[in-house]
């Protein structure tokens, strides 16, 4: 009888580990541009989706595009421990989008 209860618990535990990490205090820093005239910016953004660089690219691109910005690259994905060191460089693009 115990093995019948243990199996679902093990499956649930495994599924929790296998699921992609969702953003929980997850941030990314990125570079973006606008054309005519050329403008560049470095920004820091809080992610709401997967806390992975690939997923961050799509999320950032979709969030900055309505303001006329084109994503150039995602530099890194990090937790709250990396926020303060990036704040001075991001300036007005710190958590803007």
Automatic annotation (TrEMBL):
Claim: Signal is one of the keywords in the record: yes
Organism: Parasedimentitalea denitrificans
Signal peptide coordinates: 1-23
Protein name: DUF4177 domain-containing protein
Keywords linked to the UniProt accession: Signal
Domain of life from the UniProt record: Bacteria
